[in-house]
Amino acid sequence: MYQHFTHVERLRRISETVEQELSGRFREVARLVEENQAKVLHAFQASRVSDAHFAGSTGYGYDDHGRDVIDQVYAKVFGAEDALVRPHFVSGTHAIVTALFGILRPGDELLYATGMPYDSLQEALGLRGECRGNLREYGITCRVVPLLDDGRPDYATIERAITPATKLVAIQRSRGYDWRPTFSVKEIAQLNRFVKSIRPELLTFVDNCYGEFTEMMEPTEVGIDLMAGSLIKNPGGGLAPAGGYIAGRRELVAMAASRLTAPGLGKELGATLGTNRLILQGFFLAPHIVGEALKGAVFTAALLEHYGFETSPRWNEPRSDIIQAIRFSREAELITFCQSIQAASPIDSFVRPVPSPMPGYEDRVIMAAGTFVQGASIELSADAPLREPYIGYLQGGLTYEHVKYAMLSFLDRILTEQG
Ligand SMILES: *Cc1c(COP(=O)(O)O)cnc(C)c1O
User: Fold this and answer.
1) Using only C-alpha atoms, what is the Rg of the chain?
2) Where does 47-149 have alpha helices with state H?
3) Which of 89, 90, 120, 122 is the best mutation target for the ligand 1 pocket, counting ligand atoms within 8 Å of the beta carbon and taking the most?
4) Is 393 near ligand 1, meaning CB less than 6 Å away?
5) If you measure from the C-alpha of residue 348 to the centroid of ligand 1, how many angstroms do you get, rounded to a whole number?
6) Which helix (H) or strand (E) segment is 16 a member of?
């Protein structure tokens, strides 16, 4: 691929060096993918998935066996009692908010134990703005316990923040748009045990966005009551055209389903409109696709560290999501980064992204997403809120080779600019 760049020999040398350094990391990813592929395969077999399930439904969507089998396969893989996997979730935010509104009642308190939640959730939870229909309007409060300076949960403050009104403790696994470590499933299990030791009937919830298949276990396998995520991220495998999922304890999934459709309708309705095969096939591919994205992220970190960029996580640090954060020295460099990724995309490569306001986000945001599924961030994409320090968040990549190409094209531009 090097012939497509200006600095052919330099880029070839540096990538060969980096890939040699990464051989051990790549073997670890290969083992992770093997493990998760087998897990997914066994769930398909145990659920007796058949091509009849691809038919889907229209109208009310009664007796959609494909929809039911998708719920079953997800529940098995995630070690959950039940799941609600639907193309009707418009985004990850919608799935998370549906889960929270499904469980919480007036007078309840939601405690976010891992710092300020992801930007797009803040309005819905009543933490920012005066948006109609937010949690606060229903008399449900949301309290946030900031993380410690090292990015770890503040156990002492969490304990003090739990009151008789606290119903649900939420954990955000991924860093979102923050320069902080992602929480491993082991750390989530530890926090879960701590919360339950304070009051066993407290419910725990994980925003699992970007985390699926980056480890061999998921939060619901280590005692978390409910979790949610987006189908245009990891578990959609790049094929799911839209949607989200909620998985966990049966009773809680039912409460969320009452909120998504209507009480009394729950999981029984909802036409899948031809999406069943894509959701199933995407889930089957997801362990492999996540592996490609992980290799791409590790390559990006190693390559950019060679050129003095600060990265998080570093190439050799453990990962529990697919996000790679990179700190740039100037706004212009961050914009060049996003523009290089857009230019290296299969779709809309001719479009030049610029920073602009986005619904749900406080700062101007620049997004590179030359994707087949609009905004899908399991496909190679990058985004950054335009605020200091200038940090770009890279994620996804359906093939490792594509991520590698995009990163080399960014470096090529930087080398040219520096002369
Ligand atoms: C992506 C993401 C969400 C949901 O975002 P949507 O754009 O609504 O899908 C929520 N939390 C985290 C940590 C995320 O990364």
Assistant:
1) 21
2) 65-77, 92-103, 119-122
3) 120
4) no
5) 23
6) helix 8-21
Round to whole Å and give the CA distance between 403 and 301.
Answer: 12
Ligand 1: does its nearest atom lie under 6 Å from the Cβ of 210?
Answer: yes
Is 174 near ligand 1, meaning CB less than 6 Å away? yes
C-alpha 410, offset from chain centre: 24
Q: How far apart, in whole angstroms, are the C-alpha atoms of residue 343 and residue 364?
A: 21
Give the strand pairing for 203-207 and 166-172: parallel
Alpha-carbon span 206 to 408, nearest angstrom: 35
Q: Is 91 in the pocket of ligand 1 (CB under 6 A)?
A: yes
CA distances from 190 to 219, 222, 246 (A): 11, 9, 22
d(CA 155, CA 191): 8
What tens-digit pLDDT sequence spans the chain (419 residues)? 999 999 999 999 999 999 999 999 999 999 999 999 999 999 999 999 999 999 999 999 999 999 999 999 999 999 999 999 999 999 999 999 999 999 999 999 999 999 999 988 999 999 999 999 999 999 999 999 999 999 999 999 999 999 999 999 999 999 887 888 999 999 999 999 999 999 999 999 999 999 999 999 999 999 999 999 999 999 999 999 999 999 999 999 999 999 999 999 999 999 999 999 999 999 999 999 999 999 999 999 999 999 999 999 999 999 999 999 999 999 999 999 999 999 999 999 999 999 999 876 778 999 999 999 999 999 999 999 898 899 999 999 999 999 999 999 999 999 999 87
Of 329, 343, 418, give the one whose Cα is nearest residue 382. Answer: 343
Residue 92 CA: which ligand 1 atom is closest? 9
Q: Which two tokens stand for residue 402?
A: 């594509």
Q: Is 410 helix (H, G, I), strand (E, B) or coil?
A: helix
CA distance 299 to 216: 21
Total residue count of the chain as it appears in this document:
419
Would you say 241 and 218 are in contact if contact means Cβ atoms under 8 Å apart?
no
